[in-house]
Batch of 2 targets.
Target 1
Amino acid sequence: MPSYRADLLSDTLTAPTQGMRAAMAGAEVGDDVFGEDPTVRALEERVATLLGHEAGLFTPTGSMANQLGVRVHCQPGEELLSDSLAHVVRAELGAAAVLSGVTSRTWSAPRGLLDPVAPLSMVVTGVGPYQVCTSLVCVENTHNFGGGTVQPLSALRAVRAATEREGVAMHLDGARLWNAHVASGVPLADYGDCADTVSVCLSKGLGAPVGSVLVGSADAVAEARVWRKRLGGGMRQVGILAAAGLWALDHHIERLADDHDRARRAAQACAEAAPGCVDPATVETNIVVLDAAAVGWEAPAFVAALAEAGVRGYAVSPTAVRLVWHLDVDEAATSYAVDVLTATLAAGTRRR
Ligand SMILES: *Cc1c(COP(=O)(O)O)cnc(C)c1O
């Protein structure tokens, strides 16, 4: 595996720290399929409480947590609505259709920013045997493919109120809800209050090797538990992984502000070196999306030039490059990345 001086491919790359490994090694465990793993139960309760929900369920991945949310709220032949860039429709490989028989319709959302009105304009209920009924609206916070966008609480609340009136459930994909919370100062429970179920990842910026938690009502989580087992996600002495999550909750939430500062600083330097490649005001959390094409680069060539210099980014389209800050990119790596980014961008500008 090549190693990079600054690896900005994804915040999933984080490796467990020494403290986290020690916590894992010392974890009390039991058979979690029998509900007897105390560390898993502690994690589930802790996350549920943080988000103001009754119960939680530990899952191996965020995709499974999201899909359990879909499964709990939708029957086969019903539909979910989301924005067109949402992870649940773009990056889960058609799971809602394959596993739950659920169709998806999407609204468009520049930068993934939640439009408080668009979802409701698409909701269809009570149309019985004539049209597909909407049973779920999915929203994402922060928005990954939108560039780490923080959803305004007012928009989340507006959609929540409207879907509640229509009897449609709401699922919040909060893979990076921790980042939204740290960037906005909005309490996690206020975000939690905006949805029937919420999924959160422990394995992104929080730095755990594995794991997500789905929270919701006791009934919803009990049903999700059945479906988790059915999908092959019933795990045994998994407290050893839940311990990593508990460690991350204790030690790695507040420090996300460092990732946000570094991302913003890099965006500002890039904007100065190559005006038009990014608007630093859009960098709200740990993700920077550069418009490489706007400054004379094709995204794959730009990524290759960065890699040559020891910096890894990700070409998310032929024109755009994503850079993600995380636990394993420190001050020195950030400074190095900024030097490489600005020099490479300037070279593109000269070639035009
Ligand atoms: C990473 C991510 C997930 C979950 O991904 P897994 O790889 O399945 O853990 C879900 N939603 C968003 C927005 C994500 O970025």
Target 2
Amino acid sequence: MSSKILNKFLNESIADLKERGMYNEIDPVQGANGPQINIDGKQLINLSSNNYLGLATDERLKQVAKEAVDTHGVGAGAVRTINGTLDLHVELEKRIASFKGTEAAISYQSGFNCNMAAISAVMNKEDAILSDALNHASIIDGCRLSKAKIIPFNHSDMEDLRQKAKEAVESGQYKKIMVITDGVFSMDGDIAKLPEIVEIAEEFDLITYVDDAHGSGVLGKGAGTVKHFGLQDKVDLQMGTLSKAIGVIGGYVAGKQNLIDWLKVSSRPFLFSTAVSPADAKASTKAIELLMESTELHDRLWENGRYLKEGLKKLGFDIGNSETPITPCIIGDEKKAQQFSKRLFEEGVYAKSIVFPTVPRGTARVRNMPTAAHTKEMLDKALQIYEKIGKEMDVI
Ligand SMILES: *Cc1c(COP(=O)(O)O)cnc(C)c1O
């Protein structure tokens, strides 16, 4: 017999979300998530993926992934600490450390898992975490899991951070204090003020943790936000994902050897969940090798980002203050942004609307993620469609 209470809860919760226009219907992509995608049999220019460098469909990565299946099979077979650590995982970790300019690195099954793993391995209920108000959901959940006191500071507000760090230190209540931030904030494309954050961290002896999911492959000639600012020696934990610019799946934390040694014996997703598959490990390693050999993809990403931004701006759209290729098109009204995205879809562009509570009320937007894999023709076509709908809906 199924639970009546559960049924009631589920039906009411779903109905409530639908009533508030917040129930997300998922569109399955038919085939690969490339610069153009097929949904419902319709071909669309894809401006919604995190596949910044186009590596998710790169032939070189596909080739090494196939080889890894032949030599190592399809699964790691066990958690890392039993015998699921394959030579391919070790190679991947070495490669990540050299990419990030750190002594060592540990890989996890996802970026989300990294934040579940690393924050609670380092922080506990006697500690406090200063967390940017716009930090990613996985950071928030990782902080909660640690049971440390969470002290949010206003987004990128360094005065507020300094003040709260000072209060936390002076209260004498906490054994350790961490400051944690996204490297690149994915809703607006702005970059964390890492030089100031590091300075405040040094002043108050804070542990520094940067989640660089959107910075890796994009900033610092590909090596990320920390490298962009030349702060590799000053950030204690550099966390990143292998699923966005790297194009595969998995996550990592890079830092000093003793940090990585500790995470390998104490972080629970490492101890109790099986590692990524051989094909994933090998493809990620190859992707990082490609990024270290050449900035070609990185340069193309930035060029496409600039092209799209200039085009939208010239048309009269409000593209916010992004400092990265992430290009929001701010519409304002929630319903209008959703309608705008729907019209883009009908005309052949896939760009999702992002509304409250993900972004503040009244700043609803359509977010565009240009990638290295887009051609000028695709971007020109997207711009034409933007122009048509912008005029039709009175946005420009
Ligand atoms: C996407 C994202 C993650 C999660 O990474 P996955 O590898 O997809 O689990 C973590 N942090 C930030 C800031 C992200 O944008």
